[in-house]
Amino acid sequence: MPRQQSNDRESQSTSAWNGLREYFNGPIYLLIIKIPILLIGAIIYM
Hints:
Layout: H1 2-45
Transmembrane segments: 27-45
Keywords: Membrane, Transmembrane, Transmembrane helix
């Protein structure tokens, strides 16, 4: 029984990690790419 619980906990953590990975591959990843470009553009523009 305890072994089953630990397996469930591991599967939950892996699913949560996959969700986080998908989320970071989404808008946050674009922000990480876009913010430095915007900063460099603002510096050049000024």
